[in-house]
Structure formats: structure tokens, C-alpha cells
Description:
By secondary structure, the chain is α+β, with helices and mostly antiparallel strands. It has one domain: L-fuculose-1-phosphate Aldolase. It is built from seven helices and eight strands; from the N terminus they run αββββαβααβαββαα. The protein has helices spanning 3-23, 82-91, 104-112, 121-127, 143-152, 172-193, 203-218, and strands at 33-38, 41-47, 64-66, 71-73, 97-101, 133-134, 157-160, 164-169. The chain has an eight-stranded mixed sheet, with helices on both faces. The longest helix has 22 residues, at 172-193. It starts with a helix and ends in an 8-residue tail after the last helix.
Amino acid sequence: MTNAKARRRARAAIVEFGLRMQVERLGYWTSGNLSMRVPGDPDLIVVSPSAKPWDLVEPEDVPLVRLDGTVLQGVGRPTSELPLHTRLYQRRPGIAAVVHVHSPAAMAMAALDWTLPPFLTGLVEATGGAVACAPYARPGSPELADAVAGALEGRGACFLRHHGLLAVGATLPRAFQAAAVTEGAADAYLRARALGSVKDLDPAEVAWIAGAWEAQWTGEETGARG
């Protein structure tokens, strides 16, 4: 694939998954942002444009940005969370996509400073285990990338205190899966907690199921379990 073709496909993918973010109620109006590395050029990313409703975003609106923050192409301005995205890519070469959403159950978990335990098989497959809440850092600040480092260690998602949800993956579909499944699991957990205690999966089962999540980073992924 030529570099120009890879860039076009990456920008189109941002629009596709931005619309999915709205359809799956992971964000409202212009909230939330996502990015991915351009295949074949790991120092180049495409990132969602700032303050534009997703049903109005076209591929040419999507900014093309170097990891140092230099904007190379795109009608729109990059998301205000650009420092979070670029720093995550700089620190973790294996990450190929970042999805940040403001979805209802995730925001509730972030407000409560709760950890989502590994109580559902699908959650573990999507994120690798429990989803922790990172300490607060100001939105749009470089410090936000520092704040999430611990909570994202060995996991595909974390909550952002007083903010929302952050997910990463070896591909954009995998990062989006982590965000969407975490939102659904958080909703189920909050409903279940209102009725009583919630038991975690057995640790041995968590470790086995998490293998499906870990496989994306090694290129050994063969498909979902079950």
C-alpha cells in the first residue's frame, strides 16, 4: 500500500469509527476523540477534528499529525486532547489506536473513582482484566498522559477521574471494542451493584480469557473466544 493510500484509508477509518461512537452512545454532540497510527509510518497519526459533529465530518477534515504535534494536513483542527494521544504513542510503540469517550456508565465510574472488576468474560477479553480509574489531570494537558500510565499498564482501558474512559489497542477496531465493551460492562455492573454484591470471575479464568486480549499485541490473534 502506498503512503498516500494508507493515509486516505486511515482518515476514512476515523470518520467511520467516529460515527460508530455516536451510534453506540459512547459520546454526545462533539464529545470524545480517537486516533490511529498511519500504517507504514509509525510517527504519523490521524486524529479526530475538534468541535465538529460527527455526521458533518469528512475524511479531508481529519488532521494528519506527526507525533511531535506538527499538523501536516486536514481542514479541521486536531482535538484538544492531542497531547494525550501523541504522548501515549510516543511511550508505547505497540499502541496503534486510541479511543477516548464520554459515555454514561463510564462517566459514573469515573465520578465514583471505582474500579470495574473482572466479572464478565467479554470484559476480560476486551480489556485484559479489571478496568481501573486513573487519577485526575486537567483535560487537554500533557499531564493527562502521565496520569493514565499506571491504570493502563497491562490493560486495554481505564477510567479518567471526573472525566470519562480511555481505551487503546493494536488496531482501531480493538481499541473501539475495548471502549464499547467497557461501557456495556460498566452499565451492567452499576445495575448489579444496586441489587447486591457482584462476584469476580475466578483468577484462573481471568488469566485464560485475557489471552485473547494479549494476542493482539503479538500478532497471534485468531478470533474471539466463544
